[in-house]
Write a structure and sequence with these properties.
Elements lengths: L6 H5 L16 H11 L6 H5 L3 H11 L5 H5 L3 H8 L16 H7 L18 H6 L4 E2 H14 L7 E6 L7 H11 L3 E2 L10 H9 L7 E6 L2 E3 L22 H15 L14 H10 L3 H6 L3 H24 L9 E10 L7 E10 L5 E4 L9 H6 L4 E2 H14 L7 E6 L7 H11 L2 E3 L10 H9 L7 E6 L2 E3 L22 H15 L17 H14 L14 H10 L3 H6 L3 H21 L8 E10 L7 E10 L5 E4 L3
Parallel strand pairs: 2-3, 2-4, 4-6, 5-6, 10-11, 10-12, 12-14, 13-14
Antiparallel strand pairs: 1-7, 6-7, 7-8, 9-15, 14-15, 15-16
Helix pairs in contact: 2-17, 4-6, 9-10, 11-15, 12-13, 17-18, 20-21, 20-22, 21-22
């Protein structure tokens, strides 16, 4: 999807959203970890050194609660020791970083728990992570798996791994790397990574699990990223042109595109094993035809669609065959996207789910439930958007470089009252203790100058202020903008509902419709409800409705102001190719005007950093995002000093 043509106007001279992207968007945990380490609390070295990897991981979890599950689980024992104490670190080769072999012996530092060695190359391939943010190298993945299963009570010697990866030879390195820890794997996979062995294969595998042991199932489609960063292809040994990767998946995507367009009819599954697997791959991809057709990069979206199809199949296999696991055996299931790279570089794997089941098929634990999983669709629709973790880390680095101290910084947020917006406030509170809340409907700072003045009086002595503002918009699991799934609701509804309703009203007034008595919000699970309501108001004004007048009852005052602020953007919204994408940009423009007037009233001794943009809400289990559109530094009198990001 294209960025709104009105964006350059709203940016008011900024050089473009891509400039806001951090230098290493794909690895927010690294930057965050550096910040964490600077603020670490020293533990008793004797206690730390004598602790097991599992115990150390729990210490890390308690000491650094904001660290993601995946980041924590990829830490080696020596790295955890380093983070928790001032002890020396141990390299992969077993050598202490500085000459303290005696000290290591004194503390009983074990050298047999170094980072897991993998047989495949370990050289990083940045293009893979740029294409699939959050992806782990094979070595990082195996380390994460081992740490997670160890904590869940797994014994390496009694664990049988079942892999369902595509038959393509480029996928064997991951199987070999996992086998380096758990010995040879049972192979359930066929074309495109679907577990075509089905329930029968799972049952047979279950009968092979060592007595008193457990199983790990690893599944997912694969996709190539070549040396030029192209997705869907990769260089292959001895071939000048590598070709499609995954070939089965690409062929299936062509079939579903033809069925969607009407160029061909849906084919029946052949009663012949010669072509049955490919027919099943194509058939299971059909429900995702429209999603692939509307994707900006079909080769990037294809493995996500295949993963969703495979996740459904794996769930049915577990439900039907889990009972084959004997005794109290556990079933860990890791699903994601395998990423193949050119020769000499590490392959990658993007974990999308990691769950633990008992042998009744009941979910015991979702290992990634507290993990902010990347939601790829957001960056397609809002290029330059940062995950909450990426945003907080980058903001912290910028402020620190400009003299801010986290201990004396007060954060003021102006985000919509919708409950889906609290995670971003929580993320900032993790670094800055808490936040002052100035926001109302649609994210407008309705606390106004008085609220800003009260906040200023609360800034710690000698400290500064960070203000974060912006509208929000939902992106649901199908990639639809302006809506999002909500906890416990079959239908999530609009997001932001208030803004959408107000924009509809404005359009109606512009076209001549009669104005309503007051600007009501939309019904149901709107996200953002205020924005939905405001968009309706704007649409009404555009049609010729008379603009609403200030209601006499305070009950409806905020929504009135949302609609009024959105009125100047009525034609911009009417002409937009996608109104739901354009709406948050218009709201950002309106909020920037109000925020500027508020900051001009500032009267404090410290600096005032103001970050504005668009907050993007995603389905449960995924990270939310924020698209920065401005980040400026003002002095205590509200005078602009410089642009922090440009």
């Amino acid at each position: 999807m294209k960025i709104s043509p009105a964006l350059p106007i709203l940016l008011a001279g900024l050089s473009g959203v891509s400039a806001f992207a951090p230098s290493n968007v794909a690895r927010p945990a690294t930057a965050r970890m550096a910040t964490v380490e600077e603020e670490k609390t020293s533990f008793d070295p004797a206690v730390v050194m004598g602790s097991s990897s599992r115990e150390l991981n729990q210490m890390i979890k308690a000491e650094f609660p904001e660290m993601s599950f995946i980041t924590r689980k990829t830490l080696s024992k020596s790295k955890m020791v380093e983070m928790l104490t001032d002890a020396p670190t141990v390299s992969a080769g077993g050598k202490v970083d500085w000459s303290v072999q005696k000290g290591a012996a004194t503390f009983g530092l074990s050298l047999d728990k170094n980072p897991i060695e993998t047989a495949s190359p370990t050289k990083a391939f940045p293009n893979a992570v740029e294409a699939f943010p959050g992806a782990l190298t094979n070595q990082e993945l195996v380390q994460m798996i081992d740490a997670t299963l160890d904590e869940a009570g797994y014994d390496r010697e009694k664990t049988l791994v079942a892999c369902s990866l595509c038959c393509d030879e480029v996928n064997r390195p991951l199987e070999n790397d996992i086998a380096g820890v758990y010995t040879n794997n049972f192979n359930m996979g066929g074309l495109a990574g679907f577990p075509f062995g089905g329930a029968v294969a799972f049952g047979a595998m279950s009968a092979h699990i060592p007595d008193g042991g457990d199983t790990l199932m690893v599944y997912g489609p694969h996709v190539g990223v070549d040396s030029k960063g192209n997705i869907g292809t990769v260089e292959r040994r001895g071939k000048e042109n590598g070709g499609s990767c995954c070939g089965s998946a690409v062929a299936a995507s062509g079939y579903v595109a033809d069925v969607l367009s009407g160029a061909t009819e849906k084919a029946a599954i052949p009663d012949d094993p010669l072509h049955a697997q490919q027919a099943y791959v194509s058939d299971m991809l059909l429900p995702y035809a429209e999603r692939l057709d509307t994707a900006d990069n079909k080769m990037q979206e294809l493995p996500y669609a295949l993963y969703d199809a495979q996740q459904d199949m794996v769930g049915r296999i577990i439900e039907k065959a889990a009972a084959g696991v004997a005794g109290d055996g556990k079933i860990a299931v890791l699903g994601g996207v395998q990423i193949n790279t050119p020769a000499g570089f590490s392959d990658y794997f993007l974990p999308l789910s990691f769950e633990l089941y008992n042998n009744s098929g009941d979910l015991v634990e979702d290992f990634m439930s507290s993990t902010n999983r990347p939601f790829n669709k957001v960056k397609e629709i809002f290029p330059g958007a940062l995950s909450n973790a990426e945003l907080v880390a980058k903001v912290g680095q910028t402020l620190e470089a400009n003299g801010y101290d986290k201990k004396t910084t007060l954060v003021a947020t102006s985000l919509c009252c919708d409950e889906v917006n609290r995670p971003l406030e929580d993320a900032f509170s993790g670094d800055y203790d808490t936040n002052f809340n100035m926001g109302g409907l649609a994210g407008f700072p309705f606390g106004g100058a008085v609220s800003f003045g009260a906040m200023s009086a609360h800034i710690p002595d000698g400290g500064d202020c960070l203000m974060v503002y912006g509208p929000h918009v939902g992106v649901d699991s199908k990639g639809a903008v302006g809506t999002v799934e909500r906890r416990g609701r079959a239908a999530g509804g609009s997001c932001c509902g208030s803004a959408v309703a107000a924009s509809g009203y404005v359009a109606g007034v512009l076209k001549g419709d009669e104005p309503p008595l007051f600007l009501g919000t939309s019904s149901g699970g709107s996200c953002c409800g205020s924005a939905v309501a405001a968009s309706g108001y704007v649409a009404g004004v555009l049609k010729g409705d008379e603009p609403a007048t200030l209601p006499g009852d305070v009950v409806d005052a905020q929504q009135y102001f949302v609609g009024k602020a959105l009125l100047p953007y009525a034609e911009q919204l009417e002409k937009a190719e996608d109104k739901m994408i354009e709406l948050p940009y218009a709201l950002y423009g309106a909020q920037t005007e109000l925020t500027k007037r508020i900051v001009e009233t500032s009267n404090t001794d410290g600096n005032v950093a103001v970050l504005g943009g668009i907050q993007i809400n995603t389905p449960p289990g995924f990270t939310d995002y924020f698209m920065p559109l401005s980040f400026d530094m003002h002095n205590g009198k509200g005078e602009l000093q410089k642009q922090l990001w440009s």
